[in-house]
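Please, structure for the following, as tokens.
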Amino acid sequence: MNEIIKAITMRRSIRKFKPEMPPRADIEQIIEAGLYAPSGMGKQSAITIAVTSPEIRERLRADNCRIGGWDEGFDPFYGAPVILVVLADRNWANRVYDGSLMMGNMLLAAHALGLGSIWIHRARQEFEMPSYQQLLQDLGVPGEWEGIGHCAVGYIDGEIPAPAKRREGRVFWAE
């Protein structure tokens, strides 16, 4: 089977990570794969904030947990030590599509490198908050951004889950 198709069919969302930080070179490769995602009109409207700081990760965890309505100690990132936040230009009509393609590329790249990953929502709500807009300013990120999602990445703690059965009736041919 083609290696790309194999990665697509074998990748799974991981919900338990080891605390060890993956090598920076692996994180950089995952981000680079995201940067090569297709984008509307080639605009490349999506960006990534690579969160490896335990303090900022904890802040994201607590806010994401609160927004999601979970108990205070729950970790919506399942212990992943790296959170790649995808944002896209708030004023670009294709921002959600561009950011989603970036997320997909990063999820597949993590799998290809032997790491686990999962897409976690609520980035939009987080980055509407003044404190996260300030974080972007502090990081030197100009512009107006909409949160698309979080790509939580790390070493898998346990087995890769089995695939769910593919639902029938989702392909229609117009021949």
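The beta strands are 46-51, 82-89, 116-120, 145-154. Residues 3-154 form a domain with the NADH Oxidase fold (CATH 3.40.109.10).
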